[in-house]
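Quick one: sequence plus zinc ion SMILES, need structure tokens.
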Amino acid sequence: MIGLVARAPKKCLTAGCRKPATKKGKCDEHHVPWEHTSPRNRSRPANAATLVRRARRRDRERCYLCGGPGRIVDHVIPVAEGGTWDLSNLACICDACHALKSQGESARGRARQR
Ligand SMILES: [Zn+2]
Ligand SMILES: [Zn+2]
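Reply:
Sure thing.
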């Protein structure tokens, strides 16, 4: 009866921590949401939401590539390629252009890893 074997509760993976693991092998205290660990978002500033709002207002929610309506705010130069969170590097983009642009970026990202 495998289902009845009692298992000790998992402990947090952080060295020296004895709390039970509740999230992906870590306790509540040591668990870091992916937004903070992914390289894409590591440089995200605390005022990111404000910058995004300002970029939307400046561009009047028009895609900077095709001029169509676009509420997504994108990095003109991707952060992974040295772009910053400066307002000059943020621009509104539509779904279609964003999808195309992301495709190119992930292809370049894969090429860099080789
Ligand atoms: Zn812990
Ligand atoms: Zn567009």
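The radius of gyration is 20 Å. The mean pLDDT is 85.
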